[in-house]
Amino acid sequence: MKYTNSKRKILICRMMVATFLISFVAVGVAQEDTGTVTGRVVDPDGKPVAELPIFIAPLDDDGDGYMSPVFLPNEHAQLRRAHTDLEGRFSITDVPSGPVHIGALPYDIDTRLPKDFEEIVEVFTSRDWTELTQDDVDAFVSSNFGMDPEDFEPDVEVLSLRIQGFTLYPRNDYDEIAFGLKPGTHLKDVEVTVQPRMRVRGRVLFKDGTPLANTRTRLYTNTGSSSGGEDVWVDPDGYFILYIDEKNDAAFYTISAEYQNLSVEAEPIRLDPGDRFDGLTLTFDSEPIPAKRSPQKTETDEPAPSPPASESPSRPTSNDVWVVNPENGHRYKRVHCETRDDAIAQATEEKAHLVVINNAEEQAWLEAVFGHKFYWIGLKRVPTTGALSKRTKEWWQWDNGDPITYANWLPNDFFSESLDASDRDYVVMTLTNGKWYAVSPNSVIWRMTKMAILEKPDKLDGQ
Question: Quick check: 4 pLDDT over 50?
Answer without folding.
Answer: no
